[in-house]
Amino acid sequence: MSVSELTRLVSVAPAAAEPAAYTPVDGGVAQVGWLMIALPLLGAAVLLFGGRRTDRWGPLLATALSWSSFVVGVLVILQLRGQDEAERALQLNLWDWVSAGDLQLSAGLLLDPLSLTFVMLITFVGSLIHVYSLGYMEHDPDKRRFFGYLNLFVAAMLLLVLADSYMLLFVGWEGVGLASYLLIGFWNHNPAYATAANKAFIVNRIGDVGMILAMGLMFATFGALDYATVHGAASGASDLTLTLIGLALLLGACAKSAQFPLQSWLGDAMAGPTPVSALIHAATMVTAGVYLVARSQHIYNLTPDAQLAVTIVGAITLVYGAVVGCAKDDIKKALAASTMSQIGYMMLAVGLGPVGYTFAIFHLVTHGFFKAGMFLGAGSVMHAMRDRVDMRRFGALSTKVKITWLTFAAGWAAIIGVPLLSGWWSKDLIIEAAFVGEGWRPWVFGLATLVTAGVTAFYMSRLFFMTFHGKARWEDDIDPHEAPLVMTVPMMVLAVGSLFLGAALWPTGVLDGWLEPVFGHAEHHEPVIPVIVIQVAVFVLMLAGVAYAWLRYGRADVPEVAPEGSFAVRAARRDLFQDDVNEAFFRAPGAALVDTLVESDRVVVEGGLTGGTSAGLTGLSGVLRRAQNGFVRSYALTMLLGVVAILGAVWVMQ
């Protein structure tokens, strides 16, 4: 590819694309597009309500239904490709859903290139993870429940991306939150795992506040919550309203996609079984925030302030995740930090506007393959090492688990940006786009993406070399062995995608042309630095990161106990004190407020008002009790006194 062709890839559209007119479904397999959601949802219902009777065949049913959803998605895509570009947004109305005052809303699905791209990623990678889980969870007594949760998650995620309104999207949004909570805390007999699930659940509820506020503003402004109406009328709203909606949506996106400042849950979420990490925290759930911003492009393109906020959040997060990843010794937490950083790249790209939307989705797809492959590889390593996760006690595993080593190497090479592999195609496009613009922005955002590319090469190479190379550092009683084929075959498929998917989608124009009806055509603009200079700089930084990691963790001896390190290293190990900040500014003040209210209730209400009233009533009852002595003469005297009192009152009133 020539320099001029590479330069052409970096461009900016002069204006927002007009909202596409949705074409009602009229024939074809799209009429049963709802099966994409219904099939895995059926699997979840059968496994979760069928009880122990489904133990033997339930996991196989769940896997088959996930693949069936993928097949339906492929057939819908083939139908869409047979139509004109202007008609590649099909709306499938299901039923009248909400009728409350001025809000009239139908439940329906939007089958367009953007939603179906996500369907392919969710169902294909998700189904491979189902297959992998057949081996990984083989001996778990609750594997039926695990597969039920997997199907529930896939169904909720598909509803999220296929919904034709923000309200129906929110139903899928909450379903994903519930399923992730159940999967992260699957082994909830371990208190730390249960705490991790609660943490993820609570942080995501903060994001839900943003979603609810955004929908409230939409209804107050547009009188509707469906995409067609909201996006079509967005240009008539005030700048302030659009900015508030954009910021509220960003709050929701930050929680779901683990973006700053709501990223603290992602590392702890590694408590779930490793297939959960691959499904939720690499390929699907953490991409929901990117989808939300991309789907709301007609709002963000009209509010530069909210768009800039998205870019800033992405830039901070991609640097944050890379710094944290440099110091993690837990293989899954190191991959989680990498996920945070890579989602930051995507969030920054969608914040750049029309130039970045397609690049973000492209990187989202390629990242789903190589990161899911590496998470499954981490699970295979744990399988070989009796569930150990400390990379300082690994080393030299390339000689013991060769298939895992080779497939993991494919993902590693892709994410660090080895030329012509998937990550090189997608991540470099985002870096080039970040250097487009005027003023301070291209320099700040461009340099952030450029430097982080070098840091990514370092910490991912550190992980790779500590795990598979150098001297063996495991205990004598451990005999590492390769995982069974049911686990390694999905890893092989994902490795092939890590190597060749980028070249299959981008130089051919397949993905760019497929998404153009959604994002519109972007005009060409030059970066502030020539593209060839950017590419050379990325390549040099990548080589430098790999070389430094090899010197530190490949060739040199790795201490089995982590040294104390500098302040920066200790800070990175503690996630840059994110939990400490949350504890000091949110949890501790909240707990103190609750304790104060409880004590106030005990002293003032129970001890003062309620307590005083109670004491008075107790004393009065004691007096009355003494009057009830059981003697007839006492009762007769009481009656006489009553009659005298009544007669006296009548005489006074006269």
From TrEMBL:
Cell location: Endomembrane system; Membrane
Keywords carried by this UniProt record: Membrane, Transmembrane, Transmembrane helix
Coiled-coil region list: none
The keyword Protease appears for this protein: no
Major subcellular site: membrane
Membrane topology: Multi-pass membrane protein
Gene Ontology terms: cellular component: endomembrane system; membrane
Keyword flag Transmembrane: yes
Listed Gene3D superfamilies: 1.20.5.2700
Any single Pfam family the record assigns to this protein: Proton_antipo_M
Ranges that cross the membrane: 32-50, 57-78, 114-134, 146-163, 169-188, 209-230, 236-255, 276-294, 306-327, 334-353, 359-382, 403-425, 445-465, 485-508, 528-551, 635-653
Domain NADH-Ubiquinone oxidoreductase (complex I) chain 5 N-terminal, chain residue ranges per copy: 97-147
Example GO molecular function: NADH dehydrogenase activity
One GO BP annotation of this record: ATP synthesis coupled electron transport
Domain NADH:quinone oxidoreductase/Mrp antiporter transmembrane intervals: 163-448
UniProt-listed PANTHER family: NADH-UBIQUINONE OXIDOREDUCTASE CHAIN 5
Protein name: NADH dehydrogenase subunit L
Species in which this protein is naturally found: Ornithinimicrobium humiphilum
